[in-house]
Write the structure tokens for this entry.
Amino acid sequence: MEVKFSARSAEQLKIPPASMSGVIFGTVFSDHMFCMEWEEGKGWHNAEIKPYGPLMLEPSSMVLHYAQMSFEGLKAYQTDSGEHVLFRPRENFKRMNRTSLRMCLPELDIEEVLTTLKKLLRLDSGWVPYEAGTSLYIRPTILATEEAIGLKVSSKYLFFIILSPVGPYYPQGFNPVKIMVSEKYVRAVPGGVGYAKTGGNYAASILAEKEAKELGYTQVLWLDAVERRYIEEVGSMNIFFLINEEIVTPQLTGSILPGITRMSVLELGKHWGLKVSERRVSIDEILKGLKDGSVTEIFGSGTAAVISPVGVLSYKGEECQVGNGETGPITSRFYEQLTGIQYGKVADPFDWVESI
Ligand SMILES: *Cc1c(COP(=O)(O)O)cnc(C)c1O
């Protein structure tokens, strides 16, 4: 793939924030972006690394009306030795291709896109922050751009990657959060698009999160849409339970997003010799387990926060504390090990990190 290249001139280059403290997640962007277009009969073309800036889209562009799109989220980290690395980036582009199949979007050539992403990252390497817990968030996106408002599969698409330096997810530290079980709303349905990273899933979730926040909770716990019994995810993270010393997470049924952090937790747990299982987990099993002491830890997993301990679950107006309300030892161990691998502080037994 030929990639055109137009960099900002020295005078146009912006200055990355001197410190990431106080920078709100996803509000600052680097100097450059990668764009390419797709058209029926032509495939991907017009690949270009160019200055970050507004897109030219007609108001009739299909994605603005019917949300035919997919996105991804991954990070570049500066390790303790000063090297810049990615964490399992191929998994993100594989997942993007799976989302694309469901959303009728064109697939990407994973190796070509990864090579170009690395070029972009080398060009904007000054934007990878280096303070503890910071990273450069990478957002690949595909949009349907045909200029027509009749509902059909678009014949034109735009792919882009933008880069955003981000601070630690928990500037106040790694503390358990309060979660409200959503009884009124569901995130995804069988046969729907829950497993796809596509905008509509998030648009549909924000009212539930707004209402939970108004009641003093950080996120909602999503139950399955049919029986409203089986646990699926927490906010936009996967969820894990420590039940009788076993790591348990809901099995992937099509309405759960297959997280790369989720997959890494399962692989690490096995590597440590812990019992891990993917199965259906009901809210009743968890509430009973919290009361009788068999459920000792609960945490969420995702790229943004890596691991997020849950301290309280609220269901049907009743609050239930997890353990003593503090971060449990297994939760901390996963957090320390995963971030340790990402920042090059500990050995990487699976070769998950890859240099840029
Ligand atoms: C992105 C996402 C996750 C986490 O996936 P990671 O690959 O671990 O970042 C989990 N659930 C939802 C709904 C997501 O969008």
Remarks:
- Helices lie at 63-66, 89-102, 110-123, 199-203, 206-214, 260-271, 283-292, 329-342.
